[in-house]
């Protein structure tokens, strides 16, 4: 189901094609999802996740990790890709919106805590940073997937943070943040976390 939304978009994904893709009967599909809109909402419900994010010394690192881990997971997970596809699909967006406000809220919470701890520069406004980075992140993702020689989403998102952070992070914190595109892979291997020997 998620793969079909990702491939053809919301409008072109018919119930017949969803039945064929899932291998379910129409009755079984309708038992779980009474409408195509309900199916799309189910995909979007899984879009906002903190999987792979663990508490760090700096809340600003957790905020960076959120974007880096999502960038690592997105190309590998059809459900997340479908959620992004539905969020940029004009028809789907007009029917049930996007999860971008939720991503903004998650980022704003982390950045607000970072501000309280003195991790952000005095002029940095958490609400503005969260909103602009969600927009920039989405734009980078959309452009990256269309470029034939793209270095990959995690690499591009790492560069995005490397450009933004000097303008918002206090110097002492900035020097300790890890924006490596390889960090998400380490975070998603709990037995070999980012602080493990050799990591």
TrEMBL record:
Keyword hit for Metal-binding: no
Record flagged with keyword DNA-binding: yes
InterPro entries reported in the protein's UniProt record: ArpA-like, DNA-bd_HTH_TetR-type_CS, Homeodomain-like_sf, HTH-type_TetR-like_transc_reg, HTH_TetR, Tet_transcr_reg_TetR-rel_C_sf
DNA-binding annotation, residue ranges on this chain: 14-33
Alphabetical UniProt keywords: DNA-binding, Transcription, Transcription regulation
Compositionally skewed regions (Basic and acidic residues) per UniProt: 179-189
Region described as Disordered: spans on this chain: 175-199
A Pfam family matched in the record: TetR_N
Domain HTH tetR-type as annotated: residue spans: 1-51
Record's protein name: HTH tetR-type domain-containing protein
